Amino acid sequence: MAKLFFLLSGEHETLPVSELKAILETEGYAFKVLEKLDQILRLDVDLKCVETVKRRAAFTRLCGLELFTCKAETNEILKNMRVVNLKDVLANEETFVVRVHHVKDYAPNIDSMFLERKLGELILNKKEKTKVNLKNPNKTFTGFLTEEKFIFGMLLAEIPPKPFVERRPKKKPFFHPSAMLAKLTRCMVNLARPKAGELVLDPFCGTGSTLTEATLIGCRTIGLDIQRRMVKGTIKNLTYFKIEPEGVILADARNPPLTKVDCVVTDPPYGRSSTTLKRSTGQIVEEVLAAVKDMLGKGQRVCMAAPKTLNIKKTGETLGYKHLESHFVYVHRSLTREIAVFEKV
Question: Residue 220: enclosing H or E segment and its boundaries?
Fold first, then answer.
């Protein structure tokens, strides 16, 4: 076990923490939460989890090996740096750089450039044969100022946002205005907790976002849609991203031609741009939750999005599911999505 800190996305209040915990639980990593700060989660956890988080996470930006945490006061920070043992993190003749960041507007009285320089000097004093390299260092030391605290450590991994940007709805060959952002879709997949090799079902595959994101983390995928043009559009997008699903089937989600899957991740149709075939969104959600229940084993999960006004938590519980969590994502004035996670009991 090691003390690690994770910089989380500020795009949503609750999803980043829940997604990170879900990834660790899915992959079998025991962990202890040391502290939850604004956009920072400090954990005691196995170092091996870093590559897994890097491969799977949508709302985690970076991970670091914690060297110390203290009050966000310059003298206190430098005092802690003086007693840090760098023996196991910085070898002789390795180059390094120090970066200090303010989360939001915390600690405005602290000059990050001044602090970088002072921390760098202390590191040089501890390791005489090392040098600073601003462009291509062997090691990057990074610190974050948030909620009256300063967290400092060695960077272990960064998760670049560019791949998710490249999979935004308007970047795909087949576009539909109701399509969900790749980041949110990936997060929903993680909340459903599938392991690599397990089968993920999206009964409303739409433009193929769920199938894409689940496949990219090593899952097997299968999609259904009742509209032929959506099935064709999904196949077009999957081909573009070189994604090979188990299948994309023209089928009614109320009567899925399947007997067993490992989890369900879906965003049913709603809104003016979606076709609901004269059924209300409430009817669609209820029918599909009922239809997929027999395909799931005990403890397996459904992660579903729907308008907040629908109260899908109540619908799922009425059907006998255990409601685990809900997150609310503002889309525009007339739509806030509820991302709900259910477990079959």
Answer: strand 220-225
Partnered with residue 245 across adjacent β-strands are none
This model's pTM is above 0.85:
yes
Residue in this structure with the two tokens 């200090």, named with its chain if needed: 100
In a 13 Å sphere around the CA of 13, the CA atoms on its Cβ side amount to: 5
Rounded Cα–Cα distance for residues 156 and 158 (Å): 7
Q: What does the pLDDT profile of the chain (345 residues) look like in tens digits?
A: 999 999 999 999 999 999 999 999 999 999 999 999 999 999 999 999 999 999 999 999 999 999 999 999 999 999 999 999 999 999 988 999 999 999 999 999 999 999 999 999 999 999 878 999 999 999 999 999 999 999 999 999 999 999 999 999 999 999 998 899 999 999 999 999 999 999 999 999 999 999 999 999 999 999 999 999 999 999 999 999 999 999 999 999 999 999 999 999 999 987 544 455 667 889 999 999 999 999 999 999 999 999 999 999 999 999 999 999 999 999 988 899 999 999 999
- Contact predicate 45/2, CB 8 Å: yes
Helix, strand or coil, per DSSP, at residue 33:
strand
Q: What's the burial of 277, exposed, middle or buried (CB within 10 Å: 0-12/13-18/19+)? A: exposed
Helices (H), the chain: 15-26, 49-56, 74-82, 112-126, 162-166, 182-192, 209-216, 228-240, 281-293, 312-318
SS percent in the chain: helix, strand, coil, step 5: 30, 30, 40
Dihedral angle sign, alpha carbons of residues 323, 309, 22, 17: negative
C-alpha pair distances (Å), 315 with each of 55, 218, 284, 290, 339: 33, 31, 11, 10, 13
